[in-house]
Every structure is written in C-alpha cells, then in structure tokens.
Design brief:
CATH architecture of the largest domain: 3-Layer(aba) Sandwich
CATH class of the largest domain: Alpha Beta
Helix content: 40-55%
Shape: elongated
Number of strands: 18
Largest sheet: 7 strands, parallel
Radius of gyration: 28 Å
Length: 531
RNA sequence: GCCAGAGUAGCUCAGUGGUAGAGCAGAGGACUCAUAAGCCUUUGGUCGCCGGUUCAAUCCCGGCCUCUGGCACCA
C-alpha cells in the first residue's frame, strides 16, 4: 500500500483560530481524504507552535505559567479540527517531550558536525519590544518609530547555522525538481530569492531575553529560536530510531500559506534537512489567502461576521464546500458571508439537497419506497450516463492536480443534469399512466435518479464526507470498501429501501430586516396561480 | 526599483489564431415529485489602453496603465 504523508503548518497559539487556519486544515483534509479513498495509507499531521516571546508575554500578562497558557489555547485549535471534521492522524505540540528531544538531538548533531557556530551579533535593540530592529524599520529621517521606545546598539553572542554553505546545492536541487513548489510560479519566487547571497541563520536567543523555548543541548544558556523549533515538528512527530519513519518520510506535501514559503519552508527547511542528512520534502503546497474586504467595512460598524460562525449555523460540510469550491488552490479569494449564503442556497439547498428530498419522495410515492431495477434505456438515460462517463473521466485528473474546485464544479454540473433528467421523465406523469411501457419508464426513472445520486454523493466525499454518508444512508445503501469500485454506473441500488424524506441543507431563515446589508434575500416567492 | 500573478457580461470566473462562454443575479414561461425548490427560454460584454505581426487577435509581439503578492532572520 502506498503511503502518503502530509502536514499543515503548525499554528502559533498566541491568538485564536481564524479563517486562514480553518482553510488550511480543510484543504489538507480534503487531500488526505481523497488519498485515503484512493487507497493510500495516509498520515495526516497538524499541530501547534507554542514557544516564543509572544507566548511568554501573553502568559505573563494573564499571570499564568506559559505552559498553562499553551495548554489552554492549544485546546482551541484542537476544537477547530473537531468542528471542521478534520481527519488528522496526529496532533503535535512543540512543548511535548517527543518534539523537544528531536530538536535537541538534531541541534547536537549539527553542532558536532560544525554546522553551527557561535558569533557576535551586533544590532539595534529595542528594550520595549524586546527585539532587534532592522534598517528597514527606520523612519525616512533615520530615527526609530515611537513604538520601539529607547533603541540602543548592542552586541550579543549567538549561535548561527551555516545556511550559505548550501545555497548552491539548493539552487541545483530546485533545477532538478521543477515541481518542488506548487503552484509552479511560486517556485520561481524561490529561485529569484536564491539569486541573492544567503546569510547564515541566527538560531538562538540568550535565555535572559527569552526563557520560553528549547535549550540548546550544547549551551544551556540559550534557547533555540523559531525555525529550529517549529519546522522540526514535521519529523519529530514521526521520529523513529534516530530518523523520520521511512514509511512516511520524505513527506508528500507540506501544506502552508504563501507567507511562510520563502524563506522558511523553501530555503531553511530543505537546507536544515540536508545538513542533518535527511531527505528534503517531496513538495510544498503554498495556498493563498482569504481576503475579507467586506468584513473590514462591517467591522467599523460593529457588525463584523466571524466566518467560523458559519460552521455552527450551516454545518461543517457546507463550510468546507464553500472554501474548496470558491478557492483556486494557490490564488487568493474573497470571503463574504453574502457570497456564502448564495452558494449555499443555490448549490447545496436548491440543487443537491432538494434533489435528495424529491428523489426520496418520488421513490416512496411511486415506487413503494423501494428502488426498482432499470428496465429501459432511452435518450434521457443515455444522455445522463454519457455525462457521468465524462464527469468520471475528468474528476480524478482534476483531483490529482489539486483542482478540487473544478472537480466539485463538474460534479455539480452532473447534479444539475439529474434534476433536468427528472423533468424530462416527469415520473409524476408516468405514474398516472396505466400503459405498461410507461410503468417501465417510471421504474427506470426512479432507478436512474437514485443511482445517479449515489454516484454524485460518492464524488463529493472528500469535501463533504458527512453528506455523502447521509445520502447513501437515505438511499438505504452502504458504500463498499474500495472507493473506485463505487465510481462506475451500477445496479447496486436495486431493491434498496429508502428513507421517508431528508432535508440535508435547510434554507436559512430569511434575514431579519435589520439595518443595512441584508445578505442574500431568498427569491421572492411566486404567487401561486388561482384556480 | 526588482520579480511574480491578475485585468473578459452587475458579481465570480472559464476560454481558443478566425467576428466571445458558464454559474449566480435579473426578465419571461410551462409544470408540480420537492426545501415557494427544480425545468425551459431570455436580456447583458468595443475580452484594461495604444501600437505591431497576420487574410484574421481577446488569445502572438512591443509599450503603457491599474490591482495584488513577495523582496530574509517576522508566527
């Protein structure tokens, strides 16, 4: 069985989860679920980054121990995974012993090899912000901004990692591995970055300045800083006998935000691994950001909508659907609650949810609640089956290319076609006919709509696993163990007993006529005709 | 400044060397199994601007404008 290891970035616990965290987890989860369905042995890791100055300061502000602070806030991130139905196999925290041990082991290994050395670092230090400043932090007139308070030039001794020794190696590696970074154009950014000479990387902080970190094994007066702590999580979580578990390493995908691609994941990380004698990752997937231009405006009026509230209101599957359907992986996209409601109503409630409900109702009314076998194949059936063949052919390549938004789009084209098929057959008319041929067509139409619904449900599974299960259950069906065997058009449903009715995606209550932007009013009902 | 991405119907986007497409929104219609859902029909665009190559460019080339992101020790 092929193994497939993928990770999200670990989230910094000095703050609450937001849409960006949610998206990264959902995207990674969709890939993970898809690979599992394709038969891979998946290992999906996520977690939290808990060290550093900000955590130390936040804990102090609350008057609690940093560890206690981490214990509390990391729970929020775990809760987010549960809420979004994330199927991670592991959740790592950088304050765990298993992690700290590996960090120290690798630091020692590099120190022994001479990859880490001690040197003086001279710079401008802000006591108030407890950090070194950069030349770019200066105001145009050369002074330092007010927020830094008193700035003094100090010299500090620190440990450095010989990054620049590996610059040529990395450039060559990127040439040989053109698909190291997805999307491709981001790899160009990395190559561009490497045209400038690298400096060695400062990897320590003196403990008097930063207490909350992992002490260097060869000098306990220092803790390691940021990258040699956080990035290591990807291997510390699967550490086995002095190396990352060969069943999973090298990792198939590190899913990260575009903001931490260059330089941390695309430069520091491969070089760190190379220096340790460990293989680099197979690929990095840098996703874009959700912009919330609309939210900023409403914030000023105090009406800010937290996107994560939509999960509670509409369910994890609907939320996941929106994120995956709207975002072209790698690009940025705009998030708006209005847009969300429009998609929810149109795709999920009207097209899919309503289709499920009407299929169940017709099967009960015209078929006695049991899905009959198809008996004829005329133009309407042929058209629908042809479309399925086309959908099936396109689906897998799209998913393999991470084009999940397109894969969903094709699947919903098929869903719409099922609705159109039903109109063509009009079982409610066939039901009134006593002709044997019409009765055969009626049974065929019930079988066809049920089967096509089963197939559509199968294809939405990586994105909306709960919905797939509900639809299959409503059809009285339990999917087999091998997903790909579920893809072809079949007679698997013959004789299945269906449920009474099922409203999967209830339409939201009409928005209260509160001031300002009322989101997505439901369409005005048409007046029923008199008579 | 440098690098990259993007500028196509009201909105979100697809697209090909031969006088433009989808979904949503809008308009009209027939139906009733259904979450007043679904189906059918339909109104919208000098495809950022200016040149060039070509029989022919939205798609090729050059220039320009606008937007977004990155340009290191900051999660």
């Amino acid at each position: 069985m092929k193994s497939f290891y993928l990770t999200t970035a670990i989230d910094y616990v000095n703050g609450s989860p937001h849409l960006g965290h949610a998206y990264e987890k959902v995207l990674t989860d969709v890939i993970a679920r898809y690979r599992r369905l394709m038969g891979d042995q998946v290992h999906f890791l996520t977690g939290v980054d808990e060290h550093g100055q900000k955590v130390q300061m936040s804990a102090r502000k609350k008057g609690i121990d940093p560890q206690q602070f981490c214990d509390e806030t990391s729970l929020e991130f775990r809760a987010l995974c549960t809420k979004l139905n994330i199927s991670n196999d592991d959740f790592i925290r950088t304050t765990e012993t298993r992690h700290k041990a590996v960090v120290r082991e690798l630091l020692q290994r590099l120190f022994d090899k001479g990859e880490i050395y001690r040197a003086e670092y001279k710079g401008f230090y802000s006591t108030r912000q407890e950090q070194f400043l950069q030349e770019k932090d200066r105001l145009p007139d050369g002074s330092w901004p007010e927020i830094y308070g008193e700035v003094t030039e100090i010299t500090e001794s620190n440990y450095f990692f010989r990054l620049k020794n590996y610059q040529e190696w990395l450039i060559g590696y990127l040439q040989e591995h053109e698909n190291f970074v997805f999307p491709r154009y981001r790899q160009k950014q990395v190559v561009e970055f490497l045209k400038e000479p690298l400096n060695d990387l400062c990897i320590s902080r003196p403990r008097e300045r930063l207490e909350w970190g992992i002490p260097l094994p060869f000098d306990e007066k220092y803790v390691t800083y940021v990258w040699f702590d956080a990035l290591i999580n990807y291997i510390s979580a699967i550490w086995k006998d002095g190396a990352p578990d060969p069943r999973f390493w090298p990792v198939d995908f590190h899913v990260i935000g575009k903001d931490i691609l260059v330089p941390p994941h695309a430069v520091y990380w491969p070089i760190m691994l190379k220096a340790c004698g460990i293989e680099p990752p197979k690929a990095l997937l840098a996703h874009g950001w959700w912009l919330q231009s609309g939210a900023k405006m409403s914030k000023s009026t105090g009406n800010a909508v937290n996107p994560l509230d939509l999960v509670g209101q509409f369910g994890a599957d609907a939320f996941r659907y929106y994120l995956i359907r709207e975002m072209n992986v790698g690009q940025d996209s705009d998030f708006s609650a209005e847009h969300f409601v429009i998609r929810y109503n149109s795709d999920l409630a009207n097209d899919l949810g309503n289709l499920v409900n009407r299929t169940l109702n017709m099967t009960n009314r015209f078929g006695g609640g049991v899905i009959p076998a198809a008996e004829v194949e005329e133009e309407p059936e042929k058209e629908l089956k042809d479309l399925w063949a086309k959908t099936q052919a396109e689906y897998t390549p799209l998913c393999e290319g991470l084009q999940f938004h397109s894969a969903l789009e094709r699947t919903f084209v098929f869903v719409k076609a099922i609705n159109a098929y039903i109109e063509k057959r009009a079982p409610w008319k066939l039901g009134k006919s006593t002709e044997a041929a019409d009765q055969a067509r009626l049974r065929t139409s019930l079988a066809t709509m049920a089967e096509s619904l089963r197939l559509a449900a199968t294809f939405i599974q990586p994105v909306m696993p709960g919905t797939t299960e509900k639809i299959h259950a409503a059809l009285g069906y339990k999917a087999g163990a091998v997903w790909r065997d579920e893809h072809p058009w079949s007679t698997k449903l013959d004789g299945c007993k269906v449920e009474q009715g099922l409203v999967l995606f209830p339409r939201p209550e009409p928005a209260a006529p509160a001031a300002g932007a009322a989101p997505a009013q439901p369409k005005q009902p048409k007046q029923p005709k008199q008579g």
